[in-house]
Amino acid sequence: MASGRLKAIDFTRVWSGARGDVRMSPGALALYQEAIENADELSLKRRVHLERYFREFCDNDDYIRRLNDQKFKKEGNFPDGLGGAVAVYTFKAWKWRVYGAVMNVDARRCFVGMVVDPAKKRDKADRQKLKATAKLIAELDEYHL
């Protein structure tokens, strides 16, 4: 029986390595591409840093040790709208954030990015975006496996 839920496996894989993948929802992907595609200094910095962080996540089992809170951070556990909680993580680079969860997708560890904060002004994460991320993750078919 086919599920009517979104599937993270259908999201674009923006990075893949020996140990895992980084995937993004269509909305997050569009904002990611917008943030890194230009030749200006800020776009180049974001691209270089995010690619480095994605590589560390995807190639290493000890990614938590390799990526400090300035690069990849667990923001906390937020209600999934179903009576549970989702651990929400963020990749961060030059006032740009992608929020998502680490989950099993296609039998691999995967960061699934769902919500982007493209012009982060403060150091503290936006609670509404974190809550929205948790609820979006809970809509994924893989969350229910």
Key structural traits:
145 residues; alpha+beta; six-stranded mixed sheet; 4 helices; 32% helix; 32% strand
Element layout with pairings:
Blueprint: E1 12-16, E2 20-24, H1 26-36, H2 41-59, H3 63-66, E3 72-79, E4 85-93, E5 96-105, E6 108-117, H4 127-138
Parallel strand pairs: 2-6
Antiparallel strand pairs: 1-2, 3-4, 4-5, 5-6
Task: Describe the structure in your own words.
This protein is α+β, with helices and mostly antiparallel strands and 145 residues long. The chain has one domain (8-144). The protein is 32% helix and 32% strand. The chain is built from four helices and six strands. It has helices at residues 26-36, 41-59, 63-66, 127-138; strands spanning 12-16, 20-24, 72-79, 85-93, 96-105, 108-117. Strands 1-2-6-5-4-3 form a six-stranded mixed beta sheet. A hairpin with a 3-residue loop joins strand 1 and strand 2. The two termini are 14 Å apart. The mean pLDDT is 93.
